[in-house]
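User: Fold this; tokens only.

Assistant: Input:
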Amino acid sequence: SMLGCAALLALITACGGAGGQSGEGSSEAASIAKAGGAGADRVPPEVPPVLLSIRARGILAGNVGPIMQVRVGSAVVGSVEVRSTQPETYTFTVPGLVAGAKIDVVFTNDAFVGSEDRNLHVLYLQAGTRTVLPNASGAVYDRGMGAAAFDGVDTLAGTGTLAWSGALRLTWPASARPDPSQAAMFSAARFLQQASFGPTVSDINSVATIGPAAWIDAQMAMPATPDYLNYVQAKYDQGDAWRPMGSQYDPQFVAQRFWTSAATSPDQLRRRVGFALHGMLAVSQADSNMWVHTRAYANYIDTLNRLAFGSYRALLEEVALSPVMGIYLSHMRNRKEDPATHRLPDENFARELMQLFSIGLVELNLDGSPKLDATGKAIESYSNADVLALAKVFTGWSWAYPDNQLSEAVFRWTSPGYGMTEDLHIDVQKMKAYPGMHSTAQVTLFAGKPQAVTIAANASSEERVRIALDTLFRHPNVGPFVSRQLIQRLVTSNPSAAYVARVAAVFNDNGKGMRGDLGALVRALLLDTEARNETSHTPLPAGYGKLREPVLRVTHWLRAFAPTSSSGSYKISWELEAVGQNLFSPASVFGYFRPGYVPPNTAMASAGSTAPEFQIVNESTIASWINLAEGMSNWGIGWVGSSPDIVAGFAGQAALMAAGDIDGLLDNLNLLMFAGTMSATTRQDIIEAVSGSVAFDTAASNLNRARLAVFIALISPEFLIQR
């Protein structure tokens, strides 16, 4: 895109020079001289000739370009006039290129012609899988004409800018030996893309050492902590200014805690599953009614994390009686039916509890495929009568005031006070049933179906809710319905029917007779053969994987490069709104995207493949991601006043650039960002970009190159698609 090109050029300019073309218009210069002499004598006869490519450009004087001569040992293997003022590839046949071979790139005709100064600029040398930069370890620029270019008298550190006649003298590095641990490291990084907010070097080493199963055991042994609630409470404890309506109050307190914990907390699996559950059981802070209830919202997120490995039945009850869900789906203060006024209970929560939180719209087989009737049509899982019946069950619930205050007036009109002197912490308690406020009508759910149940007229509010939730939880749809969505959010957008069936079977029975064990389900879906199918052994099927949603792109960056937050609070707030995923503010109860979304007019549509995250992809969000990625790789994101809050130092990557170790930088990014899937195209794009400027002599220029490499990685297809 134009924005991507502009961002790329801006970073290249910051490095100190102009960028080059990515191989377009490249030419080959055939070798002119045959290898010989002492240098060639040192090349073992069994070493076959190789092609050595040199990316270079020239500055002409008197319409004559710089002459670039290439020597291996002391033997001249070729010479060419570099007439292109843009980076171009010149290729030489080298009789042998082994570790330790001495290579000289010689500039032989420096001159001034009037005001024109002839110069040679060398970007990099390439042979096989190795790329060598002009500032590689041990490189020197020996200035002088003829023999003086090799006398070691007038030398500078290796540089690509040859402004005087002389030789850029390099030692060819050893080829990387096969690393027996590399496959395990890539596999570990891929696993962590699915099971955490992003891999770190430490976690990669841990998983590679102990294996995914043992890592899951260790993660599930970590206790849940109410850190969202504790974080917001710590803000409130500073005084009324930090509470709702105060000058320092900010509903973004919850998001701040999310970014902090995603970046730094050890219990990654619990939190990643909790975030997935939030997408399935969404309450949105975008609802203005939620503005003052930040602590209650924090408690809701803690609940999702706490029960990430617990019982789905328990989670359904916590969700149903959460005050923020009650506000969001309007069953808080839900009044019973009144025949005299024709008033009926609010149906909003009742409908979404079935459609989105438990059984879905149609009856399902164990593998998630729809059950069909005799005419071939999908069988509806519930009717409007079921919605009306369930709506009556969820009447009479409101804020959990003390039992002696549960009057109709409090039920209908009273809300918690948040001032220091009036705060009773009612907002973090489950809703209470108010006497006389609930419907007493006998209701039947799923009449005519095997799941049919009748709730007696004299049942209490609590009993009615228990029976209704038990009925929904026992419905055979719940296993495949929940399993498929969690697979989509953690592993792949369009899982096979067999994959869904295997995981749903674990939901139905964890092997110990328990139904709805989310811990067992998470373990099963992450260790399933379809999840652990590795690209190094068996090619993944076409369409496998998922588009990485924007929040997970940012958390991946946070964990891979450990940027620091100047505020200590990771103040990312509105930055992701333009990319379609403002954290904790989905557009509706359907979440940021629907699990059944199929991008229209695409190959995915032709194949009937679901790809939920593509629902928030359009021209605007693509351009916005490029802009955000530029900030992440450069000045940072989040703001404290007029300064960025979260800035990555990229010290390790800049050190590799300072050492001229471009292959080391690429290997580092391939592990941390791609889990070994960086394509040859992306690899070469990064090489072209970071070598586009020839000044390698300052810490700032090497840092900017590291930033540029990360930027290209962040917008590359292999990063955006988690495989």
